[in-house]
Amino acid sequence: MQRNIKMQVEAKKLKRKSMNYSAESITATLKSKGLRVTPQRFAVYSNLLSRSDHPTVEQILEELNQNFPISSLATIYSSLQVLREVGLVQEVLLEEGVSRYDANMEKHHHFRCSSCGAIEDIPSDRIEDLNLDKLRPDLKVTTYEIIVHGLCDRC
Ligand SMILES: [Zn+2]
Ligand SMILES: [Zn+2]
C-alpha cells in the first residue's frame, strides 16, 4: 500500500521520544528475552535504540566500528537475527532489496523521502484506520503498514 503525498514532515513531532537507555536497562531487556548478553548483541541493540533512521547492516557496522572496531558484517547479521527472533528488532523493507532495521516495535508506519531516502516513523495514531471492508471477503487482515512517499523537510 503506497501513497504519494508531498508531506511537510514535522520532524520534531515525528522523532521518537527522547531515548535514554541505560546500559542496565538494555542488559535487562536482553536478559528478559532469555538472551545471553554478548558485546555484539549489546552494541547492535543499543545502536538501534539510539537512532531512528532505520539503518542498513552496513550503516550499523560503520557506526559501531567508530568506537567498537571488532565488528564485522557477519557478527552484526547474526546479532540482528537473534534480536529479531525474540521480537526486539524488526526488519523494514521500504526499498527493493534493501533491508533496514528498526528497534521501534510499536505498530507504526513509515515516511520515506523520495529525494534523500530519509526514513521516519509515523506513529499509527497519526493516520486514521483504513477501511478494509471492501477487500475480498475471504482475506483475513491481521495488520498493515503504510509507506508514505514524499519530500522531507531538508529536501
Ligand atoms: Zn529528504
Ligand atoms: Zn520504523
Automatic annotation (TrEMBL):
One of its GO terms (biological process) is regulation of secondary metabolite biosynthetic process. SUPFAM superfamilies: Winged helix' DNA-binding domain. InterPro entries: FUR, Fur_C, WH-like_DNA-bd_sf, WH_DNA-bd_sf. Signal peptide: none annotated. The keyword Ligase does not apply. Binds 1 zinc ion per subunit. Binds 1 Mn(2+) or Fe(2+) ion per subunit. GO terms for molecular function: DNA-binding transcription factor activity; transcription cis-regulatory region binding; zinc ion binding. Fe cation binds at E128. Keywords: DNA-binding, Iron, Metal-binding, Repressor, Transcription, Transcription regulation, Zinc. Its cofactor is Zn(2+); Mn(2+); Fe(2+). It holds the Pfam family FUR. Zn(2+) binds at C113, C116, C152, C155. CDD domains: Fur_like. It comes from the Bacteria. Belongs to the Fur family. PANTHER family: FERRIC UPTAKE REGULATION PROTEIN (PTHR33202:SF7), ZINC UPTAKE REGULATION PROTEIN (PTHR33202). This is Transcriptional regulator PerR.
